[in-house]
Amino acid sequence: MRSRTKQFWLGVVAVVALALASPPTAAASPIEYVNLGDSFSAGNGVLPLAPGADLRCLQSEQNFAHVVARHQGYGLTDVSCGGAATEDFYAPQFEGIRPQLDALSPSTDVVTVMIGGNDNSVFSGAIVACVRAVLTGAGTVDPCRQQNGSSFEDTIIGSTLPSVRQALRDIHTRAPDATVLIIGYPWLIPAASTCEPAVPVALGDVPYLRTLQRTLNDAVRRAAADTDTTFVDMSAVSEGHDACQPVGVRWVEPLLFADQFVPMHPNALGEAAIAAAVTEALEST
Known about the structure:
Layout: H1 2-21, E1 32-37, H2 39-42, H3 64-72, E2 75-78, E3 110-114, H4 122-136, H5 143-148, H6 151-174, E4 179-183, H7 206-226, E5 230-232, H8 235-238, H9 268-284
Parallel strand pairs: 1-2, 1-3, 3-4, 4-5
Helix pairs in contact: 3-9, 6-7
C-alpha cells in the first residue's frame, strides 16, 4: 500500500513538474485576411448579400474572399465594394465608408485585391461604347474600334497601370508582412465568335473588346511584377467560360438575359473558380 501511495505522489509530482516546465500555449490567432477591390471582388449580383456589409457595395456572402476564408479558416475583413476604383483605396467611396486601405495594418497576414477595371470607366465605358456603336455604325463590321481606336488601351497604359502599381505599393507599406495577391479578370467575351444577342456588340468588335481586356490584365500583371505581388492569372482557366456560354458553363453573366441582377459580372460559379485559383496560389507561396 505504502509503495502504491508513493508511486501515486511521484506521478503527481511528475505531472506538476511537466506543467510548470511547459505552460499551456494560447490558442493560435486566426490568419488576418483582408479583401479589397471592386465589384468583381465584391461579387456583385451573387446572392445572398454578406451580412453586415454596406448595402451600397452589394457585397456577396459567396464572393471568392468569403469562400477562401471559410475554406482556409481565415478571419476575414472584406471591404470590397461595387464600383470601386483605385482612388477609393484612399478616400471614402460613399459617405460613412472608410477608405479601403484603412482595413490594413502591420498584423495583416493575407491581402487579396481585384482592381483597375473601373479606373477611368474602362470596362463599363468600353462595353457601353460598343453597344452604342452597333446602333450608330450600322453596316460596319467593327464600328466600336473605328469610333474609339486605341483610346481605351491608351488610358489603361497611361493611367490605370501606374495607379494600380501605386496602390499595390501602398498595400505593402501598410501590411508589410502580408502575402499580397492581385487577381486578373476572367474573360468576359470569347476570342472571336459572336456574342449576340446576349452581349449585343458587332462581330468585328468582339476581338476589339477581347484585346482591351487582355491589355488590362497585362497592366495588372505588370503592376504585380513591379511590386513583388503575386498575380493570379484567370485567363487560361476562364477560357470557354465567358458570358456568351450557356448556363452552367459560363462564369460571367451576359449583358442581356442574365441569371443575376448585375450583368457582365462573375456568377457564383465564377466566384468559386476565382476562389480555387486564389487558394492554389496561397498554397504555392
